[in-house]
Design a protein that fits this description.
single chain; alpha/beta; 6-stranded parallel sheet; about 210 residues
Length: about 210
């Protein structure tokens, strides 16, 4: 769940110019990963996906927001393609800064390892992106995530190990960018707003009494 009102208040009260901050062209679009490296998160697969996306959409840069700067620089330095390497930007942010940056990206991305530990999972970054109207791309068969994409147009949930699934998304990527921020926020408020969660648990508790 996410503090919907806090995230939007922080984002709306900022005049951040993310293009200037990242030193990128005004026409650039941003796909963003927010979080830690390694563990359950598949950073190599995310970079691979971005590399394929970049072949079709030159305007996209890949923003990685993480505190593990040393680790991500080591990964980036191993990339052979110089165009991909220079198109990946890194930021380290405090929690209070995240809403104003996240609100100004075009697409949020994360890929997770599939395991029993992921059953019933719903990463915080998923709800935080959606709360700001940002469409999300993630991999399928991870906890309950698939069900949310079936309920609403909030992005895409793909099988990253099937080339046709990845290629189909990339070929139709403009549709992701054009999704309605207003509708994404509306769905998120209903599904993931922390105050709504409190009311749901309260009613459940009352029913149990």
């Amino acid at each position: 769940y996410v503090d919907f009102n806090y995230f939007n208040k922080q984002a709306n009260h900022s005049n951040l110019d993310i293009h200037s901050k990242l030193k990128i062209n005004r026409n650039s679009k941003i796909i963003c990963y927010l979080g830690s490296l390694g563990g359950f998160y598949l950073i190599d697969e995310m970079i691979s996906f971005y590399s394929k996306l970049k072949l079709h959409y030159k305007e996209y840069i890949f923003l990685i927001i993480t505190k593990q700067v040393k680790e991500i620089r080591l990964i980036i330095n191993k990339i052979d393609n110089p165009d991909i390497k220079k198109s990946i930007k890194i930021l380290t942010l405090d929690y209070y800064e995240i809403p104003k940056y996240l609100a100004r990206v075009d697409v949020s991305l994360f890929f997770l390892k599939n395991s029993e530990a992921r059953l019933g999972t719903c990463p915080t970054k998923f709800a935080e992106s959606l709360a700001l109207g940002i469409p999300v791309i993630c991999n399928s068969n991870i906890g309950d995530l698939d069900s949310y994409f079936k309920e609403a147009n909030i992005g895409a949930c793909i099988n990253i190990y099937k080339n046709n699934s990845v290629e189909n998304l990339i070929n139709n990527f403009a549709g992701i960018h054009d999704l309605s921020k207003k509708e994404i926020k509306k769905y998120t408020y209903k599904k993931f707003a922390i105050n709504n969660a409190f009311n749901k648990y309260r009613l459940l508790y009352i029913d149990l009494l």
